[in-house]
Write a structure and sequence with these properties.
The complex is a heterodimer. By secondary structure, chain A is mainly alpha-helical. Chain A has helices spanning 2-17, 20-23, 25-45, 62-69, 71-102, 109-117, 124-139, 150-178, 182-190, 195-206, 208-224, 227-232, 253-262, 269-300; strands at 48-52, 55-58, 238-240, 246-248. In chain A, strands 1-2 form a two-stranded antiparallel ribbon. A two-stranded antiparallel sheet of chain A has the order 3-4. Chain B is 76% helix and 0% strand. Classes of the chains: A mainly alpha, B mainly alpha.
């Protein structure tokens, strides 16, 4: 099969080959500048002590040891994981419920879909400001602010992200729900299945691929969250430890890495890069699982 | 008998759902409506009377918008202009060069091409923080810190997803059409622009939507790469208001936020169908 394809390909292939500088080079050059080189350099620098990229000193795994000893980093990991799990459950349950209701052919479904998806187009920074105005409007009446209590900060971010992401996940669920074979639902109805039986025994198993995709998407979105976190609370409020170090109680992983890079202590850049590598490994692992699990589902169908 | 009764309950349930969702949709639009409301209020009232309707004292007309234009020590129209330049130029570069590369990669299909493709797929799972510091230093060294050159960085960092989507599509195009063109003596460049590119239109639209949404809203990459003494984008501008000296003028901030989401909402209402399709296509892959 594959051989035959290549054989067919030859006439075009040999022609195109000579044109690599035109077709491949522009993208490849930019890709090297914008990704490959910074990635490799970042990986290398995580094993060094550096202030600028050209002045470095090899220190082995010291940066990684420091990263694991950094209380604020460990805290932000726990906080991010907690946030990612809560938002994963809430966003997906709500998005599925909305998508399910909107596929029941109710009047105005298209209009509702438009409304629910709209927040998705607004950028994270702007979203953060809109919601900090709203939360402060509510909490201000009690003399509080989103910045005074980390519980407000946590749930505030959850509400914000639900508002933004439900519409997005809803679109994927609607596509999945519309692909459920009509005759299957018809057969269930004829067999006298109640609507909840149909939902749990027929519909949900059929949209499993969409559910998997959405769960992974919300998980990676949760772990990678930065803009909204920065604009809503910026990590505040913070606690100062007896040893002088501080922990920002609503600071997520990406923001913690950013603050380590660009904070006052410029000697911490090596540690920041090591944190970034660990962060990359975490996110890439989730991405890999996503790839494998969605591939498997495709094969089965 | 039972059937008609069932039908009637079903219809009633649907009506109830419509009513519930109408209410929920209006609540859903509440934050945007609040931005609209507060962008016409005087600064002190935004914090204390966020949800209240205008009073004679709180209503300031278009004053916030006028103030907002120079608020933060930088003209807002410039930020908007740079945002537009960066978004359009980057999207154009990405569409042109990644689709060309994707065609080359899938048709030549050499070991090197496969390696490039795999690296592109790999880049999709790498978070920005991993390359943040080194990328901004590289951009600095190569003088890519202006709105006219930062699109090269976007082309590089955004290549992964675009190449992935284009390769997926090119593989589904039957070879016969291109073969016919080649036999007719068409040079690859012409085959590409007059035969392949027109066929790719649906994917071009999807990729364009995804890139526009990403780049228009992107904050950290331009913040780190651009020379901020000269250039800002809308997200950078809005974020800078919080850090500016003295107390923040919330009324003017809301006016600027309103101005920055109006084009987004117009764009959404005009191309809703493509946007939803593009987002769904990108999600399934990324």
């Amino acid at each position: 099969m594959k051989k035959k394809k290549v054989g067919n390909n030859n006439i075009i292939r040999n022609d195109i080959r000579k044109w690599a500088p035109v077709f491949l080079l522009p993208m490849l050059a930019a890709f090297i500048i914008g990704f490959v080189w910074p990635f490799l350099q970042g990986l290398f620098l995580s094993f060094t002590q550096f202030k600028t990229t050209s002045r470095w000193e090899w220190v082995g795994i010291t940066n990684y040891v420091k990263a694991f000893q950094d209380e604020s980093f460990l805290y932000s990991f726990g906080y991010t994981a907690m946030y990612a799990l809560v938002s994963l459950v809430l966003i997906n349950v709500l998005a599925f419920a909305v998508a399910y209701a909107l596929t029941l052919k109710i009047k105005g479904a298209n209009l509702f879909r438009t409304a629910f998806f709209m927040p998705n187009l607004i950028g994270g920074i702007v979203l953060g400001y809109i919601w900090s105005m709203i939360f402060d409007g509510v909490l201000g009446a009690y003399g509080e602010s989103i910045l005074t209590n980390s519980t407000w900060g946590f749930w505030g971010l959850i509400i914000l992200m639900c508002w933004q992401q439900i519409g997005y996940m809803m679109i994927i669920y609607i596509a999945g729900l519309q692909a459920v074979p009509e005759d299957m639902l018809e057969a269930a109805r004829i067999d006298g299945a109640s609507s909840s039986q149909t939902l749990f025994r027929v519909t949900i198993p059929n949209v499993m691929p969409s559910i998997t995709i959405c769960m992974f998407l919300s998980l990676t979105n949760g772990f990678k969250l930065f803009d909204q976190n920065l604009a809503l609370t910026g990590g505040l409020p913070y606690i100062i430890n007896p040893d002088g170090s501080s922990v920002h109680t609503t600071e997520m992983l990406a923001l913690n890495i950013y603050n380590t890079f660009y904070g006052q202590n410029i000697n911490a850049r090596g540690t920041a890069q090591a944190k970034a590598v660990l962060f990359f490994i975490l996110v890439a692992t989730i991405g890999l699982f996503q790839l494998v699990s969605t591939r498997k589902k495709e094969v089965q169908q | 008998m039972k059937n008609t009764k069932d039908l009637r309950t079903e219809r009633r349930n649907k009506m109830i759902l419509t009513v519930i969702f109408s209410a929920v949709s209006i609540i859903y639009m509440f934050p945007v409506l609040m931005v609209l409301l507060n962008s016409f209020k005087a600064n002190t009232f935004v914090k204390t009377d966020t949800f209240a309707w205008f009073t004679e004292e709180s209503f300031v007309g278009f004053e916030n918008f006028i103030k907002g234009m120079t608020f933060g020590g930088y003209p807002f129209w410039k930020s908007a202009l740079y945002s537009a330049v960066i978004t359009l130029l980057s999207t154009f570069l990405i569409l042109l060069f990644t689709s060309m590369a994707a065609w080359y990669i899938s048709r030549v299909d050499s070991k090197f091409c496969r390696a490039v493709y795999l690296t592109c797929v790999f880049s999709m799972v790498v978070p920005f923080q991993m390359v943040m510091f080194t990328l901004s230093k590289t951009a600095d060294t190569l003088n890519l810190d202006t709105p006219w050159t930062i699109p090269i960085i976007y082309l590089g960092f955004g290549a992964g997803l675009a190449v992935f989507m284009f390769v997926g599509f090119v593989k589904s195009i039957p070879l016969e059409i291109e073969e016919a063109a080649a036999i007719d003596g068409c040079a690859p460049l012409r085959t590409y622009f007059s035969v392949v590119l027109p066929m790719m239109k649906p994917t071009l639209v999807s990729v364009a939507i995804l890139e526009i949404m990403w780049i228009w809203n992107d904050y950290l990459l331009p913040y780190l790469v651009l020379d901020r003494t000269k250039y800002m984008t809308i997200p950078i501008h809005i974020q800078s208001l919080k850090g500016s000296y003295g107390t923040v003028d919330l009324g003017a901030t809301m006016a600027l936020i309103l101005l920055s989401i109006i084009p987004v909402i117009v764009f959404y209402l005009l191309c809703q169908k493509h946007i939803i399709k593009g987002v769904a296509a990108g999600a399934v892959k990324g």
